[in-house]
Amino acid sequence: MQYVSTRGLAPALGFADVLLEGLARDGGLYVPAELPSLPTPPPAGDYVGLAAAVMAPFADVPDLAGQLAEAYAGFDHPDVVPLVELAPGTWVQELFHGPTLAFKDLALQLVGRLMDAELQHRGDRRTIVVATSGDTGSAAIEACVGRDTLDIVVLHPAGRTSDVQRRQMTTVAAPNVHNVAIEGTFDDCQDLVKALFGDGELRDELRLGAMNSINWGRVLAQIPYYVEAGRRVGPCDVVVPSGNFGNVLAGWYAKRMGAPIERLVIASNRNDILARWANTGALVAEEVVPTLSPSMDIQVSSNHERLLFELLGRDAESTRDLLTRFRTLGSVEAPRSTDFLAASVDDATTLAEITATLEERSYLADPHTAVGLRAARVLDLGRDRPVVCLATAHPAKFPDAVEQATGIRPALPERLADLFDRDEHYDVLPADPAVVGAHVRAAVAAGH
Ligand SMILES: *Cc1c(COP(=O)(O)O)cnc(C)c1O
């Protein structure tokens, strides 16, 4: 399988190069040159076998099934992505059974292994630099820890993650893991990462690499659980708590490949640029406001570019033009698709949904999952056909919101029970590219 850039000015690459490259050299995102169909009927058997069959046409790597089996061996549920029927016609698919309790483990546990295998094969290495508002950082650290081919530097905004999120990052004591609290916002962290990548000398010297969801490997590894939902529940709608558009985009690829998904629902918190686009076609950026579902506090959803490229008939020039106008004007008319429905849910309603889900359905939902459950209610889904709401985080990851809504403080799973007794390791730095660049250089050198 070859991959092409959405901006049309970078060379086509194979899977391994796309995995290590991250962003295309022309600033675009890599997408598959053509979309294969799902095997019909979908293979019987366990989730790992299904995932291997779905992903094989995209990723020509040695022993994909073995890599998947290892990636998901540590998950604490035998089904990996179990489906639970909360009420007749309303299901949740739990995507939080991995090491860091959010759905990002499903992709990053695999991506870390695939990168490591390819780098060993090439005798090469990478320094992964990640900006996080909370969940990506810990999932990326867990993907890198103990791998000689990878160093990882995670920038999080000082004081703006939950305590659980911060401790999941900063209590990992490993020579190749470096945490930095930036005196600033998540946007500052993201700008710093871009500045590091923009420094050609540093980029080459440290062999910088990316693990955020612009990396095609992450989108790809999310396609199989949509296929699994269809296999288990039959033709259905799927509701996706959304921020950077990576998760719901994987669902769209699954549908295009033949998974029996009728509609994909973009569930947003008050940062609802995607919901407004889906409902009106206008793509208008606004200020990011902090909410109870912080992993969705984002306005410029990088993966949206992959869908716009498809909706523009895979015309790279039109895609370039649209994105340039959006970046300069902050507002454009963009093509949309009837594959999507959308709803946005504010914090008060999110809390009310956590309460109602516990009272009516005896299920404790995290705030991100609750945004999706409420979107399904608002759109009156689950009557004509089943609706599957993706549960993207474990409630114990956001104990304050859950306790506020229910009076119950959810306990961390056994393996994280001593999280608050562990020592934290991180440095605090100003949001200054020169200071952060020098720090990254020194930290990576000291780790070896
Ligand atoms: C990252 C995240 C999301 C948003 O997913 P996108 O792929 O960025 O749309 C939703 N919920 C949780 C818990 C997350 O960690």
Model description:
This protein is globular. 52% of the residues are buried. The protein has a domain at 79-101 and 219-406: Rossmann fold. α11 links the parallel β10 (236-241) and β11 (261-268). 42% of the residues lie in helices and 17% in strands. The protein is of the alpha/beta class and 448 residues long. It starts with a strand and ends with a helix. The chain is built from 18 helices and 16 strands. Strands 4-5-15-10-11-14 form a 6-stranded mixed sheet, sandwiched between helices. The protein has a 5-stranded parallel sheet with strand order 9-6-7-8-16, with helices on both faces. A 3-stranded antiparallel sheet has the order 2-1-3. It has helices at residues 15-21, 47-55, 64-73, 104-122, 135-144, 163-170, 186-198, 200-206, 216-220, 223-233, 246-256, 273-280, 304-311, 316-329, 347-361, 367-378, 399-406, 433-446, and strands spanning 2-5, 13-14, 30-32, 83-87, 90-94, 126-131, 150-157, 177-183, 208-209, 236-241, 261-268, 282-284, 331-333, 340-344, 387-391, 427-430. The longest helix has 19 residues, at 104-122. The model has no long low-confidence stretch (mean pLDDT 94). The structure holds pyridoxal-5'-phosphate (PLP). The site of pyridoxal-5'-phosphate has 16 residues, from α11.
